[in-house]
Amino acid sequence: MDETTGSTVRVANLVRQFRTGTERLTAIDDVSLDVAAGSVVAMTGPSGSGKSTLLHLIGAIEPADAGTVTVDDVEVTGLRRAALARYRQRVGFVFQRYHLLPALTVLDNVIAPVLPRRGHGRHVARARDLLDAVGLAGRERALPAQLSGGQQQRVAIARALMGAPLLLLADEPTGNLDSTTGGQVLDLLLDLRDRYGMTILLATHERAIAARCDRLVRLGDGRIVEDLDLTDGEDPAHTFDRATRLRL
Ligand SMILES: Nc1ncnc2c1ncn2[C@@H]1O[C@H](COP(=O)(O)OP(=O)(O)OP(=O)(O)O)[C@@H](O)[C@H]1O
Ligand SMILES: [Mg+2]
User: Fold this and answer.
1) What CATH fold (topology level) applies to the domain 9-245?
2) Going by CA atoms, what residue is nearest to atom 24 of ligand 1?
3) pLDDT above 50 (res 154)
4) pTM of the full predicted structure?
């Protein structure tokens, strides 16, 4: 494990099925994927193609039916309770719809994941630093309902970073935002990756967001149907050309 570049992720022959009545739906169908430490990978694909499910499996929020997820040297799919809880605390997860606690202030939302742990003063200091890093210094005492969508998303990102994760999983982090605000949230994620050294997997429907990532993995019916390296020899200034080239 390299503390400065983030986690490596290795997904091998992963399967996840759901039973609805008598039907059995294969949401993730034999997916294999290697993600390099420190890279930012965009997962795209139509609604229902399995993006959220794959992120949930990698984050150990849902169990897999077959196959393995290995993060650094840990086989996540084989972990039992205590080790699983420790793993979940090391991974940052930004949910598709923020999931902020409406009755808690911004500061308390950020601290929430580490609340049962000791060292409250230290946690408050870290939460304040993270809120500063996401551009929300001064809003610590606001309630989520008093913030814009982009600001709430930034609170969710600060919360996901509370445990100093080497892996950040973000499910449509710009999904509910206008394109300018969405672009700013991606700027923030890329900046945080550079600053803290993280691997980032994000699900997105947006072509302009995916085009700014290092790699694009497109899902269709639970399978990987396209896998593009977007960094190969390209000048980042050509982002626009990349965006128009990709059929998202
Ligand atoms: N808890 C569940 N029970 C039953 N089926 C589920 C469950 N979660 C997901 N599915 C099904 O698995 C498939 C993949 O869903 P998933 O949410 O991963 O897609 P997605 O690519 O994230 O879609 P979206 O772009 O709409 O967020 C879908 O057919 C969905 O209906
Ligand atoms: Mg989804």
Assistant:
1) Rossmann fold (3.40.50)
2) 47
3) yes
4) 0.89
